[in-house]
């Protein structure tokens, strides 16, 4: 009887200890219940001062208000996004280190190069930006039209250079396709983001550029620093109504150059954390000041959350796997 009593006492002690452990685990925040309890970082795979950098800083400021904790932006350009994205994926999936997932850039990089990351390792949160790219030249350029630019490239093979925001951004791939499919030997020159590409262009180190048709790019066009020659969208952009599309110019297959940005973290984040980030992002993108800063033409009219964002990634993977087979 005494032996059974002692065994019962030991069993009660074990169960009590286990229960305390469960309570402790629940209160530790591992399920995301107390998220966020410290600052949140968003890593950007491009240099400071460019379209993506300005976008993410606007988003971070808005989310900071909703999360009631600092949201810090860090630029980590280079390695086809690997410097930023691998740091995110190496960290704990706790929601404190996120990234701007730039598309199709990340899809192209991970398809064409050994960058150390794959798209299935990310947890999409929501899309923040979508817009076409635009071919631009300095206002004083001798090229008055896209036809002038591409005719010169044919007449002077390899001598006409066009800046891109990186070797694996969609604009760079479209220029490579223009070389291959339309025999236009214009030379793409990759930089680590839009800002250095435009610096090179305005410094007359390259002949032209193909960059995001963002609000900042439009500001430079309006200010007379740049002249727009062509847009990459299938239809003319409402904010550049007099600028022809690649399709109109006869390059009917070149409609893939688009910029899509979104917020993402590493796969494995607690569902509660993903939901809180999604809510904070969705509320931020409804903010009139945020929309004004980014530009109403670029913020999705309807919020694109984790599932449709994941489908966008999957669709782009299928598209570019076919492009690279050609």
Automatic annotation (TrEMBL):
Residues 1-25 form the signal peptide. Keywords: Receptor, Signal. PROSITE patterns: PROKAR_LIPOPROTEIN. It comes from the Bacteria. Belongs to the UPF0065 (bug) family. This is Tripartite-type tricarboxylate transporter, receptor component TctC. It comes from Actinomadura madurae.
């Amino acid at each position: 009887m005494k032996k059974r009593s002692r065994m019962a006492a030991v069993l009660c002690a074990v169960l009590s200890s286990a229960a305390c452990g469960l309570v402790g685990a629940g209160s530790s925040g591992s399920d995301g219940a107390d998220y966020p309890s410290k600052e949140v970082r968003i890593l950007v795979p491009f240099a400071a001062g460019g379209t993506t950098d300005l976008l993410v800083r606007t988003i971070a400021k808005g989310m900071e208000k909703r999360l009631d904790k600092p949201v810090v932006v860090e630029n980590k350009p280079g390695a086809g996004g690997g410097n930023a994205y691998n740091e995110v994926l190496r960290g704990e999936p706790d929601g404190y280190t996120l990234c701007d997932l730039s598309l199709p850039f990340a899809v192209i990089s991970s398809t064409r190069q050994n960058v150390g990351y794959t798209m299935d390792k990310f947890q999409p949160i929501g899309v923040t930006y979508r817009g076409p790219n635009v071919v631009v030249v300095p206002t004083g350029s001798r090229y008055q039209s896209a036809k002038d630019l591409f005719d010169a490239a044919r007449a002077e093979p390899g001598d006409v250079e066009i800046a891109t925001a990186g070797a694996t951004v969609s604009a760079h791939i479209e220029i490579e396709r223009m070389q291959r499919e339309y025999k236009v030997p214009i030379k793409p020159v990759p930089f680590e983001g839009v800002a250095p590409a435009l610096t090179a262009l305005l410094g007359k180190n390259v002949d032209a550029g193909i960059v995001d048709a963002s609000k900042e790019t439009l500001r430079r066009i309006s200010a007379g620093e740049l002249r727009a020659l062509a847009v990459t969208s299938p239809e003319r952009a409402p904010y550049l109504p007099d600028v022809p599309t690649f399709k109109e110019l006869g390059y009917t297959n070149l409609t893939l150059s688009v910029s899509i940005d979104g917020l993402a973290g590493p796969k494995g984040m607690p569902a509660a954390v993903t939901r809180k980030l999604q809510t904070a992002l969705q509320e931020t993108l409804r903010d009139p000041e945020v929309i004004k800063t980014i530009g109403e033409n670029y913020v999705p009219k309807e919020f694109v959350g984790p599932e449709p964002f994941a489908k966008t990634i999957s669709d782009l993977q299928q598209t570019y796997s076919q492009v690279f087979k050609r």
